[in-house]
Structure prediction request, 255 residues.
Amino acid sequence: MAAEIRLFPCLTDNFGYLIHDPATKATASIDAPEAAPVIKALEREGWTLTDILITHHHGDHVGGVAELKQKYGCRVVAPRDKAAKIADVDLRAGQGDVVKVGGLLARVLETPGHTLDHISYVFDSEKALFAADTLFSIGCGRVFEGDYPMMWDSLLKLRALPDDFKLYCGHEYTASNVKFALTVEPDNAALQARAEEVTRLRAENKPTIPTLLGDEKKANVFLRADEPSVAASLRMKGADAAAVFGELRERKNKS
Ligand code: ZN
Ligand code: FE
Prediction:
C-alpha cells in the first residue's frame, strides 16, 4: 500500500509534513517546526508519531521536537554533523544511509550549503523528496554556513533525481521566488506557467507544494545556473555554474 503524505502550515511560512505507512502504522514527521500543528494533524488522521526526521538544526525545523518526543516517545533522526547542537537525537544519518519508517525507506542525501549539517530525505517508492531549506519551489535556501559551490553541488544532487519525483520543501516562499525568477528569465515559458499557477493557488489560499521535480528543472532558475541563457541574462557568459549560482543567490538576497 502506498504511503500517505499530509502537509500543513506551521509557524509563519514553514510546512509541516507527515508520512504514514498504512501497513505498519508508522508515521514520521519531517522536521518539527512546532508541536501543536503536528499533534493536530496526527489526531485528525488517528496516527501515532513513531519518528521525526530532522533536516537541519535551525529552530524553525526543530522547535517542536522535545514536546513531540515527550508525548509520543518517538525516535529522532538527525544529521550526522554534530557541529550544531540538536537535542533528543536517537540516530544520526548521513549520505547514503537508509532510514526506516515502518516499512518505508528514506534515503539520506547530504545537501550542505544553507547549513553545513543539512540533509534531505528521499522516499524512492513514493517518488517523494523532502528537501527542507535546500531546494524551494522556484528558489533555494539562503547560503548561511556553506559557500556557493557547496550549495550548487547540493542542488545538482537533487536535480539528478527523476522528473516525476515530487518536491516537498520547508517553506511557502514560492510567490516571492517566482517574482525574482521572472527578473532573470522573463521569457521562460515554464516559469510563466508556474507563475500563473502560483497566483491562482495563493488566491485560493492553497499551498504551492508539492511540485514536480521535472517542472522545477525547467522553471527554477537556481537549478538552471548552468544554462548559457541564464549566464547571458546576468552578463556572465562563459562563467562557471557555481559562480552564476552565487550571483543569482546574491541578487535574490537583495531583492
Ligand atoms: Zn533553515
Ligand atoms: Fe527554515
